[in-house]
Design goal:
Shape: globular
CATH topology: ADP-ribosylation fold
Number of helices: 5
Strand order of the largest sheet: 1-4-8
CATH superfamily: Protein of unknown function DUF952
Helix content: 25-40%
CATH class: Alpha Beta
Order of helices and strands: EHEHEEEHHHEEE
Largest sheet: 3 strands, antiparallel
Structural class: alpha+beta
CATH architecture: Alpha-Beta Barrel
Strand content: 15-25%
Radius of gyration: 18 Å
Number of strands: 8
């Protein structure tokens, strides 16, 4: 599967030295935020079920893009999605075996990040009714139903996926197809 991952200078240098890159949770700023950590822990449990357990010293995955605007092409770094990169980074085009990758809808992933309920409907009226139904559930049942709804981020049949992210446990040097360095400057 052809993917594109963006890594900072330290991660890229680690990959070059060790010929392998795995997520270093000590350097992952997003894990310091409770909502993100809870969501990432949930995703890790799904990865274990769907692509297998990580290596002994791995707790979190590497992230990459599979589709941007419905296309499996190298990301255009001029897009607003990439304006938050500051400093030296590398965009790596990689080839990872399909059975080692978990794909998910990037747009609906934000519902998981925000600890929300993810409706299966795409019609606004139906979503509103579904949300009312969910809000009427007892709180202990809401939590279970909410977590079950998160499975929808993996369901390609719900809506056409335009922005698809991928996660995998490690990246090996021999999986890199091409590398491009860029220096990100935050847009004001």
């Amino acid at each position: 599967m052809r993917l594109w991952t963006i890594q900072d200078k330290a991660a890229y240098e680690d990959l070059c030295v060790n010929n392998i890159l795995r997520c270093n949770e000590k350097l992952a700023d997003w894990l310091r935020e409770d909502n993100f950590k809870r969501s990432y822990d949930w995703l890790v449990s799904e990865m274990k079920k769907r692509v297998g357990k990580p290596f002994v010293d791995v707790k979190y995955p590497i992230w990459a893009w599979y589709l941007l605007d419905g296309k499996n092409v190298k990301p255009d770094l001029r897009r607003t999605e990439f304006n938050n990169y500051v400093g030296e980074h590398y965009i790596l085009e990689v080839e990872i075996p399909d059975n080692k990758v978990l794909l998910s809808d990037e747009e609906t992933w934000h519902v998981v990040l925000n600890n929300g309920y993810l409706s299966r409907f795409d019609d606004l009226d139906a979503i509103e009714e579904d949300d009312k139904w969910f809000d009427g559930l007892p709180s202990n049942k809401q939590e279970r139903v909410k977590h079950e709804s998160w499975q929808n981020i993996f369901d390609k049949t719900l809506n056409p996926w335009k922005y698809v992210q991928s996660t995998f446990w490690e990246l090996r040097m021999e999986q890199i197809v091409s590398t491009r360095k860029f220096v990100g400057k935050r847009k004001e």
